[in-house]
Structures
1.
Amino acid sequence: MTGPPTWTQIAASGTPPAPRSDPSVIYDPVRDRLLLFGGSIRCGLTCFTPQNDVWQLTLAGTPTWTQLTPSGTPPPPRSNAAAIYDPVRDRMVIMAGSGTNPNGAWALSLSGIPTWTDLTPWSVPHSTYGPAIYDPIRDRALLLQSDGSGISALDFKDQPNQPLWCQIVPSGNLGARYGASAVYDPDDDAAIVFAGRTPGGDLLDTSFRLDLGGGFLLDAGGSHGTVVVDRWCHSSGEIATLYAVPDQGYHLNQWLGDASGSSNPLEITMNGYKVIRAEFITPGAVDEEPPAAFALSIRPNPTAGSGTIEYSLPHEALVRVRVFDVAGREVARLVDGLQPAGRHVAKWGEASGGVRPRAGIYLVRFETPEGRWTQHLALLR
C-alpha cells in the first residue's frame, strides 16, 4: 500500500483449490496467511456442488497454497457462509450460509492442530445471507442481512463456545442488497457497507455506515422463544424493557447473562453494553401436592392472542383476578369468588362479545385476603 496503489496478480506456488464461487475467506494476522473455507464448485452448466474444505495461502516469502486437514467434525458443505477472524480466541468462525443447518456457527481453532468445533448457538439469525464483521469492542460478529431484514449479532460474551444469535433492527434503511461487502471502522466504531445488487438484479455503487457507539447497546434472545426489546440503543441510566415470548409448549425459566431472575417483562438499567439470554424450558411433571405459596404468572407475554394467567393457592381462599389498563380502569374481571387449593388458569385477550381489547400494556391483579400480586401483560395486534 506504499506509493501509487497498483493491482498485481499473486504468483503463488503449490496446488491451489479448485475454481469455485462464494467461498468464505479471512486473513489470519498471527500467521500472515489467507484462509479459505468451502464455496461451490461447478459440476455442470447450471450445477454447483458446495464444499467444506479448508485451504491456506501463506503470504510471507513466496505465497504458497496448501490444503489443511483439521481435526474435529467440519461444518456441512456450504457456500455463501459468512466468516470472521476472532482475535480473542485465535480462531476462524463460520456462520449461516447455504447448506445444512443454515442457522449454525462453527469455529476452527488456529493454534496447534486446527480443530473444528460446532458452536451450537442459541436462537437463530434474521436470515442466513450477508457479509459479516467482527466488532472488537463488544466481542461479537455482526451479520448484515442481504434481504434488508436487519442485523444479526452473534454474541461471544460470557459463552464464547455457545454464542447467542440476537436479531436487531436498527433505524434507517439499508435496503436489500445481495453480494455486498462490509468492513469494521475502528476509528469511528462503525460498520461500513458497499455495493451489492438489488433483488431485481440492478448493481449498486452506494455506501452506508452503521454507527455503533452512539449509546449502550442491548443484545437479547433465546432458544425456543424470542425476546422483544423496546429498542436496541439506550442512553446511560435509561430503563430498558424486555419481554420473553416462549414458543408453544415452553415457558420462561430464567434470565441469564447480564440479568437474572424470571420477571417478565424485565426492566434493567442500562449502564453499559449488555447481552441477555432468555432460558425457555418445557414444563416438568405437575406436582400433585398443593402449591407452597400464592403465585401469579402469565404466558405467553407479550401475546398477539390470549394470555394464559396462572395463579396458585396453597389453601382454599377468596380470589379476585382482574385486568386494568394503564390508566387504572378495570377492563375485565376474570375470577371473583371462593377457589380451592391448587393451580388455576384464566385466559384473557381474545375477543369478548365481538370486541377485542386494544393493543397495549395491561395490569393483571391477583387478590386474596393474604395479599395482592400484579404483573404486566403486553397485548399485541
Note: The chain has three domains: 24-213, 216-284, 295-379.
2.
Amino acid sequence: MTLINRPTANHVQKCTATALILFSTYALMAQDLDPRAYIKAPVKGTLLVGNLTHSEGGVLTDPTLPLENLEAKVQTVALGGVRTFSFFGQSAQALVILPFAFLDATASINGQAQSASRSGIADTRFRFSVLLLGGKAVTLEEFAKAKKSTIIGSSLTVIAPTGQYFSDKLINLGTWRWSFKPEIALTQPIGKRWMIDAYAGVWLFTNNNTFYPGMSVRRQDPLLTFQYHLSYNIRPRMWVALNATFYTGGQSSVNDTYKDDRLSNARIGGNVGAACRKTPCVKDCLQQRCDYSYRCQFQYCFSWVDNFLVCEIKSE
C-alpha cells in the first residue's frame, strides 16, 4: 500500500499565512512597487528570508558626480528576517534586511576611462508596519476564520548608513546618510478575488557631510512617493497584480549649490505570487526587472517554512 502525505488544514493555513508575510517582504526588498504590503497576517510568526540578485547594464548615476557612461555588474546577497506580533492589539510586522554586494564598474570620469571594484556590506534596511484599522491581531486559528475588510495601515522604513563608503571615491556601496520613509496605506478588498492598494509616503534624508571628494556636504530635499496596485486571487495561494508608482521631489545640493536633478517619474509593473510545497515544485523563483535606464536585474528569492516554499515573480 502506498501512503500519500496530504497537507492538513493547519498546513494550508500556515502556508497561506507564510505567503502573506513573505509577499510583502520580497516587495520591500524590491522597494519600488509593493502590492499587498499591508495585508493581515497571524501574530507570533518568525521567518528568515534570502535574496540573490545579479544586475548589469547602464546605471543612472547621481547627477552631482562627474561620471558618464557608467556600466556596472552587481551581485547582491541579502539576508533578513520578519516577525509578526501584536502592537496594542493591532497586527504589526518588523523587518530587517542586511545586503552584501559585489560590484564591478567602468565609467568616464572627466573624459578618462576608469574602472572600479567594490565588495562589502551595503546599507541595512529596517521596516515597522502596523494595521491601524481592520487589522486586529489574530492567531493562526483566528486568521483562518477572519473575513476580509478595509485596512488602513502605516509604516516607517529606515535605511541605515552601514554600507561600505569611501569619501574620496565616486562609486560606493553605501550612501553614508540615514533615510526615513513614513507611509500611510489603504487596502480595499473587492469581492472574493480582487484587491486595491493605495499608498502615500515621503522619503526624508539626512546630510552626507563627507561627500566626494571628502569635505563636501550633500543635502537632498524630501521625495514624495505614491503607489497604486490592483491584484487578483487566482487561487488561495496564488495571485497576480498590476502596479504603478509615481515619485516627485528629491532635488539635491552640494555645498548649498542646487543641482538640476529634481525627480518626477512614474513606473508600472506586474507581480505573480505563489506558495507551494518544496517538492516537487520549483526550488527558487526568478525576478526580472528592466527600467528606463536599460538596467536589467535577475533575482532569485527563497524561503522555506514547514516544508513550504514561497516565491514571487516580478517585472517592472
Note: The chain has one domain: 9-315.
